[in-house]
Each structure stands twice: as structure tokens, then as C-alpha cells.
Design a protein that fits this description.
The longest helix has 21 residues. The strands form eight sheets. The chain has a 22-stranded antiparallel beta barrel. The chain has a five-stranded mixed β-sheet with strand order 8-14-15-12-13. A five-stranded mixed β-sheet has the order 21-52-51-47-48, with no helix packed on it. The chain is built from six helices and 53 strands. β39 and β40 form a beta hairpin. It has 880 residues and is mostly beta strands. The chain starts with a helix and ends with a strand. It is globular and about 90 Å long.
Length: 880
Amino acid sequence: MLRNLVVVCLFILSFAIATCAQGSGAITGKAVDDTGAAIPRAIVSVTDLTTGAVLHATTDASGEFSVSGLSSDPQLVTIGKSGFESFTQRVSFATQQSVTVNATLSVATLAETVVVRGTVEPGARPMPTRDDVQNSLQTIRVLDRKQLDAAGPVAGGAQMIALTPGANVFGYGVSGATKYTIQLNGINQGWGGQPTGFISPGSLGITFDGIPIVDVGSGLWQSATMPQNLLMQNVDVTYGPGASADRFYDDVGGSVEFTPIQPTVEHHFSVAATYGMYGQKNLAFVGNTGNFHGWSTVVGGGIGDGNDYRSAPDGFNMFGKSGSAFGKTIRQFSAGSFEFGAFYAKAGGYRPPTIPLTDQGVILTRPDGSNYSYSQSTCGFYCAPTFDEYNKYDTNEMGLIYARENLLLNNTTSVQNSTWFMHIRRLHHRTDDIFSLGPQEDEWNNPHSDAFGDKVGLQKVLPYNTLNFGAYLIHEVYNSRNLFFNSGQGGDGATETVNIGAKFRSGYFQQDDVAFYAQDDIHPIPQIHITPGVRVVGFSTSYSDQFQRDFTLLPGVVPATHCSLYQPADTGPQPNPLDPYSDIFGAPNATDQGSLCAEHASKSQVEPSINVGVMPFPWLTIYGGYDVTYRSPSLGGGGGPFLKVNPRFYQLAKGAYAQGGAKIHFNNAPVLGNFILGANYFHLDYTNQEIDYTLGNGEEVSAGGSSYYQGVDAFFDDDPKGNLHFFLNFSGEAANFTNYDTKGPGGICAPNVCFNNLPVSYVPNITLNTGVYYAIVNGNEHTLIEPHFWIEYTGSQHIFNNLTGTPDTRTMPSYTFANASVTVPFKHFNFEVDMLNLFNSKANTYEYVTSGGYFSDTPGSTNAYPGAPFTAYGTITYQF
């Protein structure tokens, strides 16, 4: 009898356990839009944050839904529908068996027309909403897919940035395969092949999915490492250094976040094929698994190639090609999430030289043997030298892997940790240069770096304030490898063989950047936020010149200037104990650009900041702040610390940024509908700058100075109707040097050496772009055709003078480009035609005064890079 009773009890217990395992929790709710109207056919996903199991439901005609049979584990509810911003909420059944979730989904901007993205997986990086922008105490511009599409289907990172307020872009080519210099309110980043005139090349931060991708040592970001437009979800631009908890090592003038495609709740796949003028071709795809057993993964990639719009008499069209691939997976847990990502890009193209505006006696030869004058006025606005006269191929490569852990310690405390490894390599290969005949006719420029970084942050939410503490450490080894040689004299870039008269370098920079930050968001009432912050930053550089290990010297080659920063170069066989090569017999006949055998320098500083925001009405935010940041001078090249400047005396550059502005955001305003408007005034003092630049004749110059930048930025997005979208970006600015010293830091100020109140070159007084998107729909609200039109205006800007080595008071004229596109959706297909520079305006986007060294042309004349002419593309997209 007892035995039977035990069996019955065990059976009852097993049944109870099984019943509990099946789950008895239930979630009910309703989805509505901003007006309170029900949203039918919205997708509801409920993820068990312990097991990863996912249950799905769909809202009915009344917007209501119900999901039952849930376990007692924490659950994550996600509700999304195309055309609306997604909604997420964590729920728990610890004290109840049923939970009600009522969601209000804000209307998104005009429906996407290129790639269906889907609802972003919770824990991944969603595009900031207009509410996010309004509530921020910084000036932030979010470029969504509409504005990214305006850059064109073969655009790269620089062209994407071009539409933000205050952006100015210089470069060559029509795609993301080639390099560009970008400016944000006059502060530079990147290197687009311009011979001269750009200062502080690495004073904008660039991140990819929250990971910094600017080369830590050189301070440069090459735009060609972000070649594929269609792999981006959005681009966010922050003006000024930004919050203490968010900035990295180079955010003096601002930062740009490239957010790639993200894992989504639903599965989808899309592929886009593009063909355009100048033989431009591109193929890109995006695929997402959706949420599968708690995991969500996205992969994407693209390849493209084509010619430049500049052509030579022999038919040489400056060919370029690019490719990139990205993958990211995320896993939700009850205590947070884990994500892992990887990105690889390689792009390159032939780089044409600048061209004189008028005949300066630069004579070139056609394939038939006849001569012609090389200038815009004589051989054409887009003329270029033949392949045998000048060819240089620039390749840029980047590989990045990273992981991020998001941990919820309790309801008010969270920890995030990001770890990454990045490899960057550039190869600039020049094999013919009629303008630089002799022992340095060819070039093999192959700098590369490996960087490891980790950033950890802790956030604590209290009733009246939110605390953030954290730190990051980045360690990089950067090698400045470069060789100017002549293959006809025995030099060889591939084998790093140095001929007599060559110029070379192989400096190794071990750069360590560290920062500790503390930030508080004090909000005594919800309408007021005061955010003080402080950072302690450190920069440490160890340098060694390893040319003797990395290069092979041909017989008779004697290196000059090696270890000579503190003493003159040897002119004979006298031994110098500080220079192991000083006892070589004979006068120096080749140039080692490394001026020290080894050296070390370290600097640290404190960066205070405070930002304040007031929201007197739900639709209005008034904000302002003051931020201080420091930056280590750029390394590498043929100038700067350890080379032209004694590193024991260099100073950290300082940026002091003040701003004040307002943002207005309405969801359902009369006439305007859903819109956001932002405007701000800014003033940046940039002092103790190490200004390194290259003259047109190849001479490396190191100068110093301090400058200021002030002006107004404004942006406007409006969706007055569901099928109409309008945007505007504006900036007005003035920038000047308070002092400019051509002798560099520590030089003696004297006439024709120190200059005051010179304009900063290449800062337009006005930039403006504006556009409209309209969808013609049928009675079922299905889009039949979607035309777009937008214009880009760049005001006048001062240029640089190579004769004096200083900015010039002369200006280059303003220019305007008009653009249009048309999209026709049909079932799972989109057919799109893009027309850039619609009216074929001829304009130079870069001009400078030459010293006569680049082409042996007339000193004082003007050379230029022309902007792209009319260009058309056709794109077919298939998606499901």
C-alpha cells in the first residue's frame, strides 16, 4: 500500500513539474500609433531571456495581441511593423502570471526604398529616433537611409557624410573605392591625395558600430575602408567632442558613427545590382536569420569596380575597385546580451594628379607622339596624363573583429565591455611619374598598423541622477614604411631595395592611449538635466627607426640624417657614437626620413566638461555646454614628432568647444505633421596644433599654430504626410588662425615666419543641402513611383599657398550640384535610377597655389581637382 502511494505521489509531482515547465505566464496588449489609432498586422515576438526560446504573434484589426504558455523566466517583448519605429519592453512573472504591454509606435520617416532592414534585435544598435536626438544634450545629426541613398548607390563613407551640416568633402573618383578628405565645421579627417593645405588631419573621431577605427598612431582614417553604402543602417554625426563617457582619442571637432546593418527580429534577404556611367558596377547583399533560438545574425557584403570621370589621351580611365564584408551575431540572456562582429574592406584606385587651371607650360605627349599642354583650359576640364606619364594606385585595407558584453547586474546597474582588434594597411604604388624623374621617380608606400583595444563602462541609475564610470586602453604598433626609388637604378619597392638618391623610412611607433572617465546626469526634475564630466587621458609613444633591418642598401648607398635630429648629418668618415652608421665612408647620398634611432614621450591631461539641457515643453529642448579635449600629435609620414620635431618639446593639442542650441520636435503638428528642427551656435578654440603638411614638390614641412572656428549649424526633417519627406542641412562659419608659425613648435617668431589672423584654408562660409522625397501611391497605399530631388551648395573658401607655405586670402568660387532619382517598386523588386550633378555643372572642389614643384609649372599659378560631372546609375533590388 505504501509503495503504491509513493508511486502516485511521484506521478503527481512529475505532472506538476511538467505543467510548470510548459509555462503559465501570459502577455496581452495593444499596439497603437501616435494618434491612438490601432496598428493591425504588427509582428509581436516574445523571447525567453534564459532559454532563448521565441514565441510569435500578430496584432489583430484592433491592434490587440495575446501570447500565453510563457515560463517564469524574464521575457523580452518586441513589436514592430514596417513604417514604424520598433518597441521593446522587458517583463517578469516573478510576482504575477499575466502582464499587459501597451505599445505606442511612432511613425518612421518615408518608407525605405533600397533594402528592407526589419525590426532591430533588442540589444543591437538601433538607429536613434527623433526623440533620442531631441533629448540629447549634444548637437547630433542622424543620416537615415533616405539621406544615405542620396549619396548614390556606389558611394563610400566620405560621400555619406557629405550631407550633414558643415561637411566639406574633397577627393577623386565617383565611388567609395578612392580616398577623400572630409571636414566637419572646418576640422579635418582623412587624406584624399591633395598635395597640400590641410592641417590637423586626424581631429575627427570615426567609429564603426561603436568601435574606433581611426589609426591611433597616424591619426588618419581612410574613407576607402568604408566603401559600400548599402551595408550601412545609418550614420550619426556628433558635433564637438561629445559626452565624456562617449568620446575617444581624436574627437576634437566631432565624431562620425557608421552603424552597419544590424541583426533583426524577422528574417529577410535582399540583393542590389548597380550599373552606371564610366563602367561603374556594384553588387551588394544583406541577409538576416531573424531570431533563432535566441540568436540573431546578419551578414552582408558588396563588390564594385569602374573608371574615373577623368580620362587621358591614351584611354587611361583611372580604374578602381572595392569590396567589403560584414557579419554580426547577438544572443540575448536573462542578464543581458553578447554580440560578436567582424568587418573587412579593401579598396583602391588609380589617383590622377591635380591639373593647372590655365596653360603653365606643362607639356605632355599623346600616344601618336604629338604634344599637348596639360591644363583645364587647353586639354579639357577633366583631362589627365597618360598611363606612361603618371600612374599611382592607392590601396587601403582594414580588418576588424570585436565583441561586446552587456550585463544587467540589477534593475538599476549595468556594465558594458567592448574588446576589439584592428589591422590597417595602405599600399600606394607609383611606377611612372614624368613630373618626378630621377632617383625618386617610383614610390612604394606601405604603412600598416595593428591595434588592440578594450573599453569598459558601469552605469548606475539613481532616483535623481545617472552615474557613468569607465575607462579604455588602446595599444597600437604602427609602421611608417615608405620608399621613393627608381627601378631603373636598381631600386625595388617590393623587395625594399634602396638605390642612390632614394628617400625612405621605416619608423615603428608603439602608441598607447588610455582614458578614465566619470560622468553624472543630474535630473532633479524630468525637465532639467545637468551633466558634468571629467576625463583623465594619457598618450605614450615609443619610437625606433628600423630601416637597417627592413631595407636593403645597394652598393654605394650612404644613408643621410639617420639619428641626426640632435646633430648635423655626417659628411665624412668621422665616427659618431650616437649613430652606428656614421663611420660609413663617403658623403650621404640617400635620405632616411627617420631622424632618431629611438625615443620615448608621454603626456597626460585632465578634460573637464559640462552640458545642460532644459525641456520647458515636451516639444522643446534648450541645451548648451563646454567641453575640453586633448589630442596627441599625428605620427608617421616625413614630418612631425620624432622626425622633424623633437618629441621632448611637443605639446598636446587642446580643443575647447562651446555650444548652445535648441531642438523642436512635434509628432502631429498642423500642416508640418511629424518634424524635427535643430539649430546651434558653436565656437571651437584649437590651440597648440602640430601642423604637418607636404608641399607640392614633396617637401615635408612642420609648422605650428592656434585657430578658432565659429558659426551656426541647423537641420530640419519633416514628414507632413506619410508619403512625403523633406530634409535640410545648413551651416554658416568663419575660421581663422590666431597665430601660424612656419618654424613649428618652439620656433622663434619673426617677420615672414609667424602670421596672425590668416584664414583657415578650405572652410566654406556656407554649406547647404536640401531635398524632397515623394511617393505616389494607389488606393491601397502601395507606392507606384517615388521621385526624389535634392541640391548641394558649397560656398566660397580660402585656399592654400605653396609659395609662402601659409593659408591664402584668395578664395575659390562657390558651386552647386542638383541631383534626382526615381524609384519604382514592383512586388519584391525595386527599380531605381539615380542622376547626380543633373545639370552637369563644372566646378573644382579643391584648388591651391603651386610653388612650381609638383609639375615644374609656373610658381604662383593655381592647380585643382575637378568635381564629378553628370553621372547616372541604374539599380535593381530584389528582397523578401
